[in-house]
Amino acid sequence: MKRREFLLGSSAAASVLGLGALPLTASDAAQELVLQPASYRLRDQPTMGMVSLSPDAPPPVLYGRQGEVLRLTVRNTLPDYTAMHWHGLRIRNEMDGVPYLTQMPIGENESFTYEFTPPDAGTYWYHPHCMTMDQMARGLTGVMVVAEPEDLGFDSEQVINLRDFRLDEDGAFLPAYTARGAARAGTFGNVQTANWQSEAVYDHAAGSLVRVRVVNTDTTRIYRLHPEGAETRIIAWDGHPVETDVTRPTAAQPLLLAPGQRVDLAVRMPDDEGQSAQLMAKFPGQKHRAMVRLRATGQSIARDLRELRPLRPNPVARPDLGQAELHEFVFGWTPEGGAPNDGFCGSLGYSFWSINRTPWPGDAAQGTGPLAVLQRGKSYVLRLRNESPNLHPIHLHGLAFVPLTSNLRKLPPLLSDTMLLLKDETVDIALVADNPGDWAFHCHVIEHQKTGLAGFIRVI
Ligand code: C2O
Ligand code: CU
Ligand code: CU
Q1: Are 353 and 373 in contact (CB under 8 A)?
Q2: In this structure, which residue's CA is closest to atom 3 in ligand 1?
């Protein structure tokens, strides 16, 4: 079957088929990202059958600059299809990397050049959106940093990519998902890593100011985090500067960082050489443990957090709540049970979940309409209701939103692209629909996404 056949009759056909030729001239230097098999020592023995962008290392941190064009050519050397998504970036729809919705899957030995200009500075990430479960579980999740033009006064930076792997004693992959997990909270990995290290240690100058960018790229786990051993401030959330005071997470009240979410910390390193600042995590049935240690080196350079210049807000339009139209979404189990369509992007073989009681019929399914149609430039309130006992990080592509209210807790008004819904929680979020296109809208627990908890929102 031809990939294009899936599109016949789909309303997305016109925009996708128009993608044929990207105007790239020879002088345009595109960074090439080559999907390839990899191996790495996650446990005592190397784990084979990983997926990365080099044979023996994690996917690199990709750097861009706010307001400057970025060209990334994804070349696929794997026998499976793929498509690359840039999580949190409010870029044009054709570059969003969602198979069938915005582009054709990229086949073996095929390339696709993504060209976009990030409007926002901050911490973002990238991952495949086709064969998602398989390729992400095998390692293909990387961090993307979009730098702001101004110097904020940090001495150094530390990127932390948190994720689990599911391995047996010998370091070989266990199945990435189970039907039991997919129908509940998801299937958890058993080896927790930061930048693929079980005990990551990084050196930074004593008394210096470090910008720590923490990204949860796991397929399942909601990390419970708190900083220890150093003066720390939260300066950004999901890429966007934090403009209000947020309480510093503690062991008793950890920060919940769900799959897809990011937090930027300003850390003032300890003064004494050898002391460390830690990012602590709590896993069920275990004591708190340090995911990452930042070790102080040399003589203290005696910086002060108050010397940092504040981050400038990103150019996100603020919704006009007086004019906003309400749309409601219910996330829960599905009354129907067929297997989702397995285009070329993989299916787990079950439908367990739904949005508005309709399970996503699969990436390549024909004739699936949007969950909502929003008018470009107008303000909206989206009411997100979780009627299940499981937690769901609900992610919207291409737009940034601000949480307004919850029936369970007080939510700081932090701009975001991924809203964690607690058990039985209803959260109202608001946004301006200012980026046209078909925007994927799904749970970022990949087993939920791939078994029905997905859809898209159209902005026209
Ligand atoms: Cu992080 Cu639809 O993705
Ligand atoms: Cu995304
Ligand atoms: Cu979910």
Answers
A1: no
A2: 87
Burial 266-284 (b: 16+ CB within 10 A, else e): bbbbbeeeeebbbbbbebe
User: For ligand 1, is residue 85 a contact (CB within 6 Å)?
Assistant: yes
Q: 20 is written with which tokens? A: 């044929």
DSSP string, 138-175: TT--EEEEEE-SS----SEEEEEEEEEE-B-TTSPBPP
Q: Is 298 left (phi over 0), alpha (psi -120 to 50) or beta?
A: left
Q: What is the DSSP letter of 136?
A: H
Name the DSSP class of 358: B
At residue 19, does pLDDT exceed 70? no
Protein residue with its CA nearest to atom 2 in ligand 1: 440
Report residue 230 as tokens. Answer: 């150093």
Find the angle CA(104)-CA(105)-CA(110) to the nearest 5 degrees.
105
The Cα–Cα gap between 33 and 228 comes to 36
What is the reported pLDDT for 116?
98
Q: Is the CB of 397 under 6 A from ligand 1?
A: yes
- Paired with 248 in beta bridges are none
Ligand 1 atom closest to the Cα of residue 127 is: 1
Closest to 165 in 3D by CA, of 130, 129, 196, 201? 196
Residue 448 belongs to what H/E stretch? Answer: helix 446-449
206 phi and psi angles, rounded to 5 deg: -60, 135
Half-sphere exposure of 314 (CA within 13 A, CB side): 29
Q: Is the pLDDT of residue 24 over 70?
A: no
State both tokens at 333.
Answer: 């189990």
Q: What six digits make up the tokens of 397? A: 């592509």
| pTM assigned to the model | 0.93
| Residue 17 Cα to ligand 3 middle (Å) | 31
Distance CA 67, CA 64 (A): 9
Q: Which pLDDT tens digit goes with each residue over 380-392?
A: 999 999 999 999 9
Cα pseudo-dihedral 118, 121, 125, 128, rounded to 10: -10
Phi, psi of 62 (to 5 degrees): -95, 135
CA distance 183 to 206: 47
